[in-house]
Amino acid sequence: MKKTNLKIRFSSALIIIFALISYVGCSKDKDDNPGSDSGSIDVATGTYKGILSIGRTNHTNAIFIVTKVDNKRLKFEAKSGEPYSSVPPRTIQAKADVPGLVDGDDPQGVFSYQVSEKKLSLVVNELEIPYTFVGEKQ
């Protein structure tokens, strides 16, 4: 029981952190540079390699594939045929309203993609299989 509560607290804390990071921006910058915001989530699509954490198990060199479902949603899926492929894919609402950042937050999970660093962070807070992935675009 205590381990479950700790997992829920940890996952909730990660979601809050990612949500706070995703809302960082300066409206003045957007006003000074009209058109600098591409508004497209396409930049976040691709293949990522990094660390997938499922509970206490870490999979290094894990591959995640991010595809565009439509103009407002991205699908996050582990590479098939791998030991970690059992993690369920997630489709998450996405937005690109802050230059250099594509992020999303909905019941399926929370993610953030930093364009300049080509770094993806994904947190799926689900009781069956909660997992996190942090990786770089290949």
From TrEMBL:
Name the UniProt record assigns to this protein: Uncharacterized protein
Organism of derivation: Sphingobacterium puteale
